[in-house]
Amino acid sequence: MKFKKNDFLGILLAALAGPGMFLIILSAYDLWDHRHSPLLGFLAVNIAIGGGLIGAFSRYIKNVGRFLTLLLLLLTFVLAVKILQWTGNGDSGYKILFIWLGILDFLILNLVVGWEFLANGLVPALDRKTEKKLLTQTNEDVDESVAN
């Protein structure tokens, strides 16, 4: 399999998405002191699998600008929540607003990636398979009519 231009985004995502999400979860739930427990290993493995899947299927993302915009918005919302926590405004309504905006952005990001995979990966593959099947049936019909 040859690397394409679109694969560099996948390599970057596979390398950075997993550790980034792991650090966000550690920070959000304050799990820094859970050393030598199976919790951190369990979290790391599950997040690494997700990061690998994101990297593998990023080949089918054709509209990279929309994807990166939603990703940067998500990082901005997470950073806004962390800044509110650091400044002592962790109990304000703005924190809840940014959390909900981050959740909505994450859901939209998942929908965009799923749609891109369906539109650019799965549907064309199924179309090629159908065309190949129709071509073999047509060839068999032609061979059968020539034999008669």
**N/C terminus separation:** 44 Å
Question: Percent range for helical residues?
Answer: over 70%
Averaged pLDDT? 80
Sheet-strand content, in percent, reads under 5%
Give the structural class.
mainly alpha
Query: How many individual helices?
Result: 4
Largest sheet: number of strands, sense, barrel closure:
none
- Regions with pLDDT < 50 over 5+ consecutive residues? none
When the domains are counted, the total is 2
Question: Cα-atom Rg, whole angstroms?
Answer: 23 Å
User: What are the secondary-structure elements, in order, as H or E?
Assistant: HHHH
The general outline is: elongated
Give the tally of β-strands: 0
Topology of helices and strands:
Blueprint: H1 7-28, H2 38-57, H3 64-86, H4 93-147
How would you sum up this structure, described in words?
With 148 residues, the protein is mostly helical. The chain folds into 2 domains: 1-60, no CATH class; 63-134. The chain has 4 helices and no strands. It has helices spanning 7-28, 38-57, 64-86, 93-147. Helix 1 (7-28) packs antiparallel against helix 2 (38-57) and helix 3 packs antiparallel against helix 4. The two termini are 44 Å apart. The model has no long low-confidence stretch (mean pLDDT 80).
